[in-house]
Design brief:
335 residues, mainly alpha, 19 helices
Length: 335
């Protein structure tokens, strides 16, 4: 893929230079991928490269937008179809229809190119999502026979073993993945969770920290490390990380929620908690945990009117939200 990118850059440079004085000469070899896409927004190879980069960073919604555009421009390209299928089955609001469509797309891709390890593992992933582990392992192993060092095959193996609650084999699979690709941040995050589940919080924290060092601007990575530190009582460090998340992405409601939660339960500074719960709600007006906890803060301040008003908003969104129903019942019994 790197060679393809270099060739594209060279071709684009030569085309511009061949225009002589009629076009501005641009040295594209020194431009970033994002800059190249701005210059050539309909370049399918550039879009595919960007889409794969976004998937690697677990930014699935953005990846889907890029993949959809590439697919509209060239629905026959194998690489475009693989990217679109992967983005489709991983999008945050994935429906059953999306899942089925992605599964059928991967079956078609494997039929078209049965030696594509990426398509084979993609199809295996859809079987995992459909809870058909037997077929998932069949296609994973087919991919590994083609390429015994295919990182994503071991990542999916680790996922399958984790779902089967076989922590030993899950850890072994993810460790193999990071041996093959020492810069795979998502594999380190998975290992961190598994080591925590296995009772080794220290090693888990090491894996979280490694992922953060590899990708310090990835909000998913920052969140994982911050949450781990919060759970270990390292609240000042967690606060710093949550604040960093909010600076990178002001729409990340969970960052504000956890800042508020620390101010509510660990500091405590109730006015600060109210401020950050309101910021979380502004970022996501359907963030039910923020509404619920905000109601609890109002209770602590003996502001029952605002507490009930806030709880009412929760129950309007989710009439069966048990925590809020319990608090409302308690407050009503006090009257």
């Amino acid at each position: 893929m790197r060679l393809l990118f270099v060739l594209i850059s060279a071709i684009l440079s030569s085309l511009l230079l061949s225009c002589g004085d009629t076009a501005k000469k641009i040295d594209t070899s020194k431009l970033s991928l994002d800059s190249l896409i701005i210059l050539y927004p309909d370049s399918v190879p550039l879009l595919v490269k960007k889409g794969n980069e976004l998937i690697e960073k677990v930014q699935y919604q953005k990846a889907l937008e890029i993949a959809a555009k590439a697919y509209r421009l060239d629905s026959l390209s194998f690489e475009t179809r693989v990217l679109y299928a992967e983005a489709l089955i991983n999008k945050p609001s994935r429906s059953a229809d999306d899942m089925l469509r992605g599964h059928l797309m991967y079956k078609s891709l494997v039929k078209a190119n049965p030696k594509s390890e990426k398509a084979l593992v993609g199809l295996a992933n859809t079987y995992t999502m459909l809870e058909d582990m037997d077929n998932s392992f069949i296609y994973i192993n087919k991919a590994l026979r083609i390429n015994p060092r295919y990182r994503d095959a071991y990542i999916l193996k680790g996922t399958n073993y984790r779902l089967k609650q076989d922590l030993k084999l899950a850890i072994s699979s993810y460790e193999t993945a990071v041996q093959i690709d020492p810069k795979c941040t998502m594999a380190y995050l998975s290992l961190a969770v598994l080591y925590e589940l296995n009772g080794d919080a220290k090693l888990g924290m090491e894996k979280y920290t490694t992922a953060y060092q590899l990708d310090p601007k990835n909000t998913e990575v920052i969140y994982a490390l911050a949450f781990a530190k919060e759970n270990l009582g390292q609240t000042d460090q967690a606060l710093g990380l949550y604040r960093k998340m909010a600076r990178i992405d002001s729409s990340y409601a969970d960052a504000y929620f956890h800042i508020a939660r620390i101010y509510q339960f660990d500091k405590p500074q109730l006015d600060s908690a109210i401020f950050y719960y309101k910021k979380a709600i502004k970022a996501n007006q359907e963030h039910i945990p923020s509404y619920h906890n905000l109601g609890m803060v109002y209770e602590e301040k003996n502001d029952i009117t605002n507490a009930l008003f806030t709880y009412a908003k929760v129950l309007k969104m989710d009439p069966d939200y048990a925590l809020t129903k319990e608090r409302v019942a308690v407050l009503k019994n006090k009257r």
